Amino acid sequence: MSLSVVVITRNEADAIRPCLESVAWADEIVVLDSGSSDGTPDICREMGARVVVAGDWPGFGPQKNRAISHATGDWVLSLDADERVPPELRGEIESAMANGPHSAYRMPRLSRYVSRYMRHSGWHPDHVIRLFRRGRARFSDDLVHERLMVEGDIGTLTHPLVHEAFTSLEEVLEKVNRYSSAGAKMAFRRGKRSSLPGAVLRGLWTFVRTYFLKGGFLDGREGFMLAVSNAEGTYYRHLKLMLLGEKPR
Fold it and tell me: How much of the chain, in percent, has pLDDT values that exceed 70?
């Protein structure tokens, strides 16, 4: 059974090399790039990937579906540029493709927040469905927080996918801004609205849920930092949603 790894990129020169190195054993690597200006496509070609250039950005879900459409393997493994497949997970993937009865497989994900791999805070085990038989799954059309929708049964692997989510606070702040904007637009299109009190209360609830209910306090200082940034993301998403719902003055 052959495996295609698919990755979408845009200015991922700092992250993409270790990602592709971790799946160099795959039969095919397809990278769908959307206008990188930092040499990402050249690095991918150097690593043996087949690079397809997209002229626009329709959102994470549609873009990942585009990448899948270029895959030719019996199985597809969808990765983000900041994710890596350790050797132990590789063995499980190969075994699942050879002997597994399911249409797709979820796997736990171990994610870094600045200087710590988070094992609480709602970030672990963080199961994600990434391995599937080609033609049996597709991503939702969401701009962010896309979901993989599978036709058939889903199995579970035990070894984690490593996710270098945030290596600096600058990355955290940039993503909070970008994702809160996309999330607000998505909610607005679905007819949702918000208010200033709603934004404040939802932000506070997100902090409480992350730090106390999800055990963020067990992740040390990074657990507190993550709870704050999660709260900020929620607050700004609802604040932007409120502004989208207001008529121009």
Answer: 99
